[in-house]
């Protein structure tokens, strides 16, 4: 799966990155390389954080059964 990542330079110095298709998935770093590393980690952790925040997130392949 490919995700679009937007990286912007910050007025305070460093960079900010976010993923438009994953609301709330944002990270920052002092260098572009550090920012890329940080946003990769944020993307990987996104499903876990969604579950911890009680969002309506369900992994692929899981079906709900009543009863």
Global structural class: alpha+beta
Tally of helical runs? 1
Shape: globular
Beta-strand share of residues: 15-25%
Secondary-structure element series = EEEH
Low-confidence stretches: 57-67
Q: Roughly how many Å is the radius of gyration? A: 15 Å
Q: Strands across the major sheet, in which order?
A: 1-2-3
Please state the average pLDDT score. 77
User: What is the percent of helical residues?
Assistant: 25-40%
Number of domains: 1
Query: How far apart are the first and last residues' alpha carbons, in Å?
Result: 34 Å
> How many runs of DSSP E, i.e. beta strands?
3
Major sheet characteristics: 3 strands, antiparallel
Explain this structure to me?
Strands 1-2-3 form a three-stranded antiparallel beta sheet, covered by helices on one side. It is built from one helix and three strands, in the order βββα. It has one domain (6-52). The chain has 67 residues and is of the alpha+beta class. Helices cover 31% and strands 18% of the residues. Strand 1 (6-9) and strand 2 (15-18) form a beta hairpin. The chain has one helix spanning 32-52; strands spanning 6-9, 15-18, 26-29. Residues 57-67 have low confidence and may be disordered. It is globular.
Brief synopsis:
The chain has one helix and three strands. With 67 residues, the protein is an alpha+beta fold.
Structure characteristics:
single chain, 67 residues, alpha+beta, 3-stranded antiparallel beta sheet, 18% strand, globular, disordered C terminus
Q: What is this structure's SSE topology?
A:
Layout: E1 6-9, E2 15-18, E3 26-29, H1 32-52
Antiparallel strand pairs: 1-2, 2-3
